[in-house]
Amino acid sequence: LFWANINKTYSLVKVQTKNTIQLTKLTEVLCREKKRSDDLIYKLVPADIAKKLKNHIAVTPEIFDSVSVLYADIVNFTLISSYHSATEVVNLLNYLFCLIDKLTDKYEAF
């Protein structure tokens, strides 16, 4: 009976150790993904807004005299940028956004 209890205890400890290792690995993955998510939000919005969003605090809209924010998805941008220098890519983006500015002005779409 004594040895049977020892074997059961050993088996339970072995399973618990395996589960602990698995949980530790999953926690590490979760922490890495949280950091990636935090890094992304801090790239998209100002830091004070990001902090509020992370803490589930309502963000009060602000009014500025002359500000525009445009999120754009350029089809095949990764492919295009892989075949051109950084300067060429920046020039392309500048050209595209200047066109957008001109169209916005022309059609008073702001």
Question: Any overview of this molecule?
Answer:
The chain has helices spanning 2-44, 47-54, 77-82, 86-106. It is mainly α and 110 residues long. The radius of gyration is 26 Å and the shape is elongated. It starts with a helix and ends with a helix. The mean pLDDT is 90.
In the predicted model, the low-confidence regions spanning at least 5 consecutive residues are none
With helices defined by DSSP (H or I, 4 residues minimum), what is the helix count? 4
Q: Per DSSP, what share of the residues sits in E-state strands of 2 or more residues?
A: under 5%
Number of strands: 0
Query: SSE order in H/E notation?
Result: HHHH
Percentage of residues assigned to helices: over 70%
Measured between the Cα atoms of the first and last residue, the distance is 82 Å
Q: What's the gyration radius in Å?
A: 26 Å
Mean pLDDT: 90
Shape: elongated
Structural class determined from secondary elements:
mainly alpha
Tell me briefly what this model is.
The radius of gyration is 26 Å and the shape is elongated. The termini are far apart.
Name a few traits of the molecule:
mainly alpha
Summarize the SSE layout with pairings:
Layout (H helix, E strand, L loop, with lengths): L1 H43 L2 H8 L22 H6 L3 H21 L4
